[in-house]
Inverse folding.
């Protein structure tokens, strides 16, 4: 049951500036990339990230893109361990399915392009 004091944002409960964690289903943990995740995949992923993701996630993936400032919940900081500790399959699933305000990219990017994004996201690991 929805509590009117806790606004719902398409599956994310928000209270003020806090939000619940977005978790991919356990089946996503074992999804494996068909790519070798080589330098050319990272480079292609970087180009896709620049075209598609920077506006919300920022150039360095820190969740501080220009459009992200107006979003609730805020875009994820992709450099954090909470993101980088997820499996490639979990990241792929999230890119594929989205979670508003993040778009689902299953009908926008090819499967290969989504895996290339995962390869590039790994470069943000600190």
């Amino acid at each position: 049951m929805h509590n009117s004091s806790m606004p719902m944002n398409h599956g994310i409960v928000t209270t003020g500036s806090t939000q619940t964690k977005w978790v991919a289903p356990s089946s996503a943990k074992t999804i494996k990339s068909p790519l070798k995740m080589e330098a050319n995949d990272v480079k292609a992923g970087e180009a896709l990230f620049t075209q598609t993701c920077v506006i919300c996630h920022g150039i360095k993936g820190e969740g501080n893109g220009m459009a992200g400032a107006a979003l609730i919940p805020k875009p994820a900081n992709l450099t954090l361990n909470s993101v980088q500790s997820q499996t490639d399959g979990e990241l792929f699933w999230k890119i594929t399915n989205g979670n508003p305000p993040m778009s689902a990219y299953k009908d926008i990017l090819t499967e290969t392009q989504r895996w290339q994004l995962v390869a590039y996201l790994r470069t943000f690991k600190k």
